Backbone:
């Protein structure tokens, strides 16, 4: 079955935006319910927090660059790693991925907006408010006199440190409430994404024809319901403990500190997959386009994603091997953790098979994806090392663990995100980002990443614990820490190239046209930037690659389905 | 300059059947999954702390089976179901009646809970701060009661609208979404009842 392309003669020339009073522009953005604008606000807000969280990391690396350093006070150091972790997970990772999801999912399934546009705006603003609340703790944490009293309990805030006696003042409450609210926003957006995918697909977009990005966002959002909710419940309990004198985590009254660990990691580990599934999603879209081949093993990719979603719910206690779970618990969680590498391996092989024999174009998005593939493999391998309980007893809470999860979060997720920025920026703005600056960004960031996080494994193996304020000379840690610090400088330089590129391209970039990469999914059928209604006429699709069918009527994909 | 909009085929096969689920139902299902996870954590905490309180009173000393309230809450599931089917049959008067019955039964349930709490606080001296039983009991039952209150507010709005003749047959899908929420609240009560009043004693 073939269809003839219909060029629509609807005038979508955007109304000129020059000369509008800034208040009107602000009003338009604040009151918008358009999924694209909300997506962009999510991304912009996350980028601001990315810079803040990055600065916190830089301050920590300066403190640790040389032994016996007193660049910041121990108290400030504790606040830095708490705020860095909390910011990066809740106010960078989640919003930036939801931002891309918000922007791309309706476009890719041929819908005009999300299922619940007003709830979408609500979810964004409540998350944004949560981020402000967290940082307000710097001013209001212990009343206005004690400025600089941000939470200092670590990002997983183990009990009983969070009890009122051990963490007086309100900084921990700001942390709790900020996470509670951001959780409400996350559940709202996830609900919206699932409903949009299940109820708003255009004609012919069967589940088996959805782009893999949409599939992965479906799995990720489903995971959010069962991941963020336990954290919300645990934060309600903590608030009851701190404000109303309940005893959930009060060890003096028979409460259990280990219960908090369970509740936190029931959230904490699936959260890693909530963050990494969208990264997989970006790679799934970028790799085929730049290999000029359809994705290899679409059904296997979908099955593997769903499998990861399920298995990820049964691995949390590998964060708690050092607590002492007993042989049965240890065996189960070692096994479950190792099993998750099977669907993940399926994905890696499928990406390799997609690249294999393709006409690979090494544009910047593809370069970041290749970086992702390599680094994600290494991150997975150190993950399997740590999943073995005896190995974890040796290295739990050391810099080896820190290096491992930064390999996942930076080496995999951030690389895929950067690739996604270069890939979809032309769609969002209508302008191409500079390839040359993009390559500078890629290489500087790649070198910086490997200097920092490859060498960070070594002090961990040499016994350096995480979260220590400083260390004495002569333990053999000092050169490694210095190299790690130097790597951070390269990463900052790369990020500056990226930010400059974002701004420069908006004003000076080449016109992109509606489909600069010769891609195959529906978002590239709309003008760049897409009009607020996305599609003048709701599209109909007959295969997984509707734009391929359109461009190649002589050999459409629909003939093979 | 004119730009052209979409370049996608729009003349798909006209006979193609294309129906997707109602978004309210799917959204409510998602909410229920998320809420179940929250309740699950509170239930796990309750079960984990059974018998671990360092001081009295214990559940066996102070709790009594809330049979009457339970019967009221569970039958309100039936009345709300009849309200939805009455609306589907365009029987607006019966719809209002069944809705009023639901609100009444839900309110009676809340009153029995309030009486129970009053008794526990006033005469047994059990509060959130007393011991682990008090902590987990009030938070779990309170979380459920909060959901009952939210449901009652929404049902009352539906009732007021239907009394004013603003509810029509085309709203039956929406009322059904609300009824799904109410069934969920009832189902949670079955779990809470089993854990708190049967297992916990």
Residues:
């Amino acid at each position: 079955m073939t269809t003839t392309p219909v060029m629509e003669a609807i005038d979508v020339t955007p109304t000129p935006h020059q000369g509008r009073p800034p208040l009107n522009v602000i009003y338009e953005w604040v009151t918008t319910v358009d999924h694209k604008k909300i997506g962009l606000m999510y991304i912009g807000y996350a980028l601001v927090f990315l810079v803040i969280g990055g600065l916190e990391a830089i301050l920590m690396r300066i403190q640790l660059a040389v032994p016996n350093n007193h660049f910041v006070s121990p108290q400030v150091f504790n606040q830095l790693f708490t705020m860095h972790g909390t910011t990066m997970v809740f106010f960078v990772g989640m919003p930036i991925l939801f931002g891309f999801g918000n922007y791309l999912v309706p476009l890719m399934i041929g819908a005009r907006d999300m299922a619940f546009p007003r709830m979408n705006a609500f979810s964004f603003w409540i998350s944004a408010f949560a981020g402000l609340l967290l940082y307000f703790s710097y001013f209001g944490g212990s009343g206005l006199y004690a400025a600089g009293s941000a939470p200092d309990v670590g990002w997983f805030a183990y009990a009983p440190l969070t009890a009122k006696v051990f963490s007086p003042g309100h900084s921990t409450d700001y942390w709790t409430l900020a996470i509670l609210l951001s959780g409400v926003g996350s559940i709202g957006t996830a609900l919206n994404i699932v409903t949009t995918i299940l109820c708003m697909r255009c004609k012919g977009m069967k589940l088996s024809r959805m782009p893999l990005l949409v599939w992965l966002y479906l799995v990720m959002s489903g995971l959010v319901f069962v991941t963020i909710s336990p954290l919300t419940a645990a934060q309600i309990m903590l608030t009851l403990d701190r404000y109303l004198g309940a005893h959930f985590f009060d060890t003096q009254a028979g409460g259990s500190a280990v219960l908090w660990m369970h509740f936190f990691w029931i959230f904490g580990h699936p959260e890693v997959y909530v963050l990494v599934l969208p990264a997989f999603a970006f790679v799934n879209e970028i790799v085929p386009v730049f290999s000029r081949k359809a994705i290899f093993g679409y059904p296997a990719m979908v099955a593997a994603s769903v499998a990861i979603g399920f298995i990820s719910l049964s691995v949390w206690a590998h964060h708690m091997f050092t607590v002492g779970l007993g042989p049965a618990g240890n065996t189960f969680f070692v096994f479950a953790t190792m099993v998750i590498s099977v669907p993940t391996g399926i994905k890696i092989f499928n990406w390799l098979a997609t690249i294999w024999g393709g006409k690979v174009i090494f544009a910047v998005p593809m370069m970041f994806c290749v970086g992702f593939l390599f680094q994600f493999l290494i991150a997975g391998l150190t993950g399997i090392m740590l999943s073995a309980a005896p190995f974890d007893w040796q290295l739990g809470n050391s810099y080896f663990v820190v290096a491992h999860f930064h390999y996942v979060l930076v080496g995999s997720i951030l690389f895929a995100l950067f690739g996604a920025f270069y890939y979809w920026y032309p769609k969002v703005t209508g302008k191409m980002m500079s390839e040359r600056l993009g390559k500078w960004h890629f290489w500087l960031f790649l070198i910086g990443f490997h200097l920092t996080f490859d060498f960070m494994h070594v002090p961990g193996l040499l016994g350096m614990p995480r979260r220590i304020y400083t260390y004495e000379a002569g333990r053999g840690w000092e050169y490694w820490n210095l190299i790690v610090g130097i790597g951070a400088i390269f990463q900052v330089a790369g990020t500056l190239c990226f930010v400059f590129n974002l701004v420069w391209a908006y004003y000076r970039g080449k016109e992109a046209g509606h489909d600069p990469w010769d891609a195959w999914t529906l978002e590239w059928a709309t003008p760049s930037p897409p009009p607020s209604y996305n599609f003048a006429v709701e599209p109909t699709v007959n295969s997984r690659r509707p734009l391929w069918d359109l461009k190649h009527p002589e050999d459409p994909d629909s003939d093979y389905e | 300059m004119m730009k052209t909009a979409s370049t996608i085929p729009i003349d798909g096969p006209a006979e193609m059947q294309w129906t997707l689920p109602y978004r309210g139902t799917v959204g409510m299902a998602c909410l229920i999954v998320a809420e179940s996870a929250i309740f699950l954590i509170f239930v796990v905490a309750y079960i984990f702390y059974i018998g671990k309180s360092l001081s009295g009173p214990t559940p066996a000393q102070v709790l009594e089976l809330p049979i009457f309230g339970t019967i009221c809450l569970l039958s309100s599931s039936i009345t709300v179901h009849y309200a939805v089917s009455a609306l589907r049959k365009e029987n607006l008067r019966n719809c209002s009646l069944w809705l009023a019955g639901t609100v009444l039964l839900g309110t009676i349930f809340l009153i029995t809970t309030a009486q129970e709490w009053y008794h526990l606080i006033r005469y047994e001296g059990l509060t959130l701060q007393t011991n682990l039983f008090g902590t987990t009991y009030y938070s779990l039952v309170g979380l459920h009661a909060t959901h009952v209150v939210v449901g009652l507010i929404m049902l009352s709005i539906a009732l007021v609208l239907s009394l004013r003749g603003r509810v029509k047959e085309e709203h039956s899908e929406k009322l059904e979404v609300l009824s799904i929420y109410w069934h969920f609240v009832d189902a949670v009560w079955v779990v809470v009842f089993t854990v708190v009043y049967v297992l916990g004693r």
